[in-house]
Amino acid sequence: MKQKMIFGFHSVLARLRAQPNSVVEIYLDERRQDGRAKNLVLIADQLGRHVRRVSAARLDGLINTGRHQGVIAKILWTPQQANLDDLLDEINEPPLLLVLDGVTDPHNLGACLRVADAAGVHAVIAPRDRAAGIGATVSKVASGAAESVPYFMVTNLARTLSELKERNIWIVGADEREGPSLFQADLPIAIAWTLGAEGSGLRHLTRERCDQVVSIPMRGSVSSLNVSVASGVCLFESVRRRLEQGAI
């Protein structure tokens, strides 16, 4: 089974609580004696996981970033369950999906996964050739969501969107430049929100697959939102409507 490193208190604690048996070892900065570090040690001890106190230099050598917050965990990385079709077959409520077209920055992906987890998204989908993969930075920014939200990187995004449409899942794009306000648009319950990277937006072929394109009303001086912020706005508008209609 493959092993990988995750870092940061949010990521390590989330992994400990969700899948304690997958945590091989935890490396903690020997200088940290604060409450956060003591809480981590306590939880790890309760779950039977070993915490090794090491120098800051050792931590820096384990992972190529200085933003590990003084904690790194070695985990067993289990291959993602099933595939997108299998996951959709098992869902017993209208699917809520997030499609990211061209989001290559790991910080943006991590933030999108965190928002997706909070909104109860069933899966996040991205093209294999124009997207960030799940790495240590993504896991840290996602604060545990990288381990809880299924993330599918597909070979042909346009074809995947067409297959979702065959399942009666509407493909709704978000674009700050066009379309009716998402607060006024007639949005379906089964939906795949589709967003592009800030600046470049949706690719032409992806936009063609959208059943509808909506915009987020911008009241201030900025012309666009970060993709993770835009994802949050769109997803939670769907959550609000699903609650109103008793779909969840």
Descriptive account of the structure:
This protein has helices spanning 9-18, 35-46, 56-62, 84-90, 106-119, 136-142, 145-148, 157-166, 204-208, 227-244, and strands spanning 2-7, 23-29, 51-54, 71-77, 96-101, 123-127, 151-154, 170-174, 191-196, 212-214. The chain is α/β, with parallel strands linked by helices. It folds into two domains: 2-77, Ribosomal protein L30/S12 (60s Ribosomal Protein L30, Chain: A), CATH 3.30.1330.30; 84-244, Alpha/beta knot, CATH 3.40.1280. It has a six-stranded parallel β-sheet, sandwiched between helices. Strands 1-4-2-3 form a four-stranded mixed β-sheet. Helix 1 (9-18) runs parallel beside helix 2, helix 1 (9-18) crosses helix 6 and helix 5 (106-119) runs parallel beside helix 6. The radius of gyration is 20 Å and the shape is elongated. The two termini are 36 Å apart. The model has no long low-confidence stretch (mean pLDDT 88).
